[in-house]
Design brief:
Layout (H helix, E strand, L loop, with lengths): L8 E2 L2 E5 L1 E5 L5 E8 L2 E7 L2 E7 L7 E7 L3 E2 L3 H8 L11 E12 L2 E10 L2 E16 L5 E12 L18 E15 L2
Antiparallel strand pairs: 1-2, 3-6, 3-13, 4-5, 4-13, 5-8, 6-7, 7-9, 9-10, 10-11, 11-12, 12-13
Family: Belongs to the UPF0312 family.
InterPro entries: Lipid/polyisoprenoid-bd_YceI, TTHA0802/YceI-like_sf
Pfam families: YceI
């Protein structure tokens, strides 16, 4: 079934129209990278939901995302279980991480999504730099849009402050966490 729309496209975003777009987890990724000694550990969250409300004026757009913290995967079961524990996410009492995007603003050739990130019942404002990748019809006739976004947070700001001493004064796990998102969202009828 092919979707058609009569909405006016959004300036600076060819093909993007106002409306509700649902994040497609099977074609998206919510991931992170954090320093561990001299290397970096990469991980993803495999279960999440999200909607993007594109406003007639893109700067009034909204985003709502819920991430199941139990779905964390760093390709190491022991480490993933530790991340679920009270040392990190404390998923027994804080099963979800949420992001509520409240506005969009230009940043050179790219854009910034401003919103509130909540982890372990601590909410802090963050800014996600994002790139619009375009709009296409998928093989099922749905109109889909693509975005890539990134942000850097300090995990200590959210009460995720477990660490271990390394050699000298160095700690084993870095404070800074790079967040990266690859999002494909489908226009809802």
């Amino acid at each position: 079934m092919s979707e058609t729309t009569t909405a006016t496209p959004i300036a600076n975003f060819p093909g993007l129209v106002a409306g509700t777009w649902a994040v497609d987890p099977s074609h998206s990724e919510v991931g992170f990278t954090v320093r561990h000694l001299m290397s970096k550990v990469r991980g993803v969250f495999n279960e999440y939901t999200g909607t993007i409300e594109i406003g007639e004026n893109v700067e009034n757009s909204k985003v709502n995302v819920e991430v199941e913290l139990n779905s964390v995967s760093t390709r190491n079961e022991t480490r993933d279980n530790h991340l679920r524990s009270g040392d990190f996410f404390s998923t027994d009492t804080n099963p979800k991480m949420t992001f509520v995007g409240t506005s969009v603003r230009p940043n050179g050739d790219d854009w910034v999504l401003v919103g509130d990130l909540t982890i372990r019942e601590v909410t802090k404002p963050i800014e996600l730099e994002f790139e619009f990748l375009g709009v296409e019809q998928n093989p099922y006739g749905q109109t889909v849009a693509g975005f890539e976004a990134k942000a850097k947070i300090n995990r200590y700001d959210f009460g995720v402050d477990f660490n271990m001493p390394g050699a000298g004064e160095r700690l084993v796990i870095g404070e800074k966490v790079d967040i990266h998102l690859i999002i494909e969202a489908a226009l809802q009828a």
